[in-house]
Amino acid sequence: MIIQPSLDTQLQPITGDARPLEQWLTTFHLASIVLDPFTNESAWIMPTAVRILRQFAGASVRTNFVITATPDEAREFLGPHAQEFLVFCDPARTFVKQLALSELPAFVYIQIDGTVPVSAQGWNAKAWRTVAEHIATVVSWSKPIIPTAGDPATFKGSPALV
Predict the structure, then answer these.
(1) Counting runs of H as helices and runs of E as strands, what totals does the chain give?
(2) Which domains does the chain have, with CATH numbers?
(3) Strand runs (DSSP E) across 4-60, as ranges?
(4) What does the pLDDT look like over 69-107, one tens digit per residue?
(5) What gap in Å lies between CA 59 and CA 21, rounded to an integer?
(6) How far apart are CA 96 and CA 105, in angstroms?
(7) In terms of Cα–Cα distance, which of 137, 9, 77 is closest to 33?
């Protein structure tokens, strides 16, 4: 089943004005890692998430975090990564609902047309590798190695909608 969030959904970057999803997709696809900063599960995946997003730096995809928190809470959770990556804040989990997520962390690929052909929820290296390989194929980029030494063992995510 292909998910298609509303292109009118407002995405609020950590700094600046909110814009509809459609405007964030005018030039690039989105490779989003969705985290809940108030859970251990999202903290456990941070080093892996940063490594994966860095792998796609320079590719024809807009890498980003979607944090289910306010801008201040997102900055506190991400630390220096808040300045390194595009960060969307979704404290009401509106975008999370639009993406039909049930567990966080999640790795979601949103194409320029607004569809979500592939995503992974919780942490399962094989599922996240599938998302990364799909992105790499679409944008003709090298794919990250998933898993690597230091990545956590498989775990179920925390509830996405609370």
Answers:
(1) 6, 9
(2) 28-149 (3.40.30.10)
(3) 10-13, 19-20, 29-35
(4) 999 999 999 999 999 999 999 999 999 999 999 999 999
(5) 19
(6) 11
(7) 77
Residue type, 32: S
Mean pLDDT, to the nearest integer, of 31-56?
98
Does 105 sit behind a cis peptide bond, omega within 30 degrees of 0 on the bond before it? yes
Place of tokens 């799909």: 134
- Please state whether beta strands 86-89 and 10-13 pair in parallel, antiparallel, or not at all (unpaired): antiparallel
Give the relative orientation of helices 40-55 and 125-139 as an angle to the nearest 10 degrees. 30
Question: Contact, 21 vs 11, CB < 8 A?
Answer: yes
Distance CA 30, CA 109 (A): 6
Q: Within a 13 Å sphere around the CA of 130, how many CA atoms are in the beta-carbon half?
A: 11
The residue behind tokens 């590719």 is 59
Q: Which letter does DSSP use for residue 116 in this model? A: B
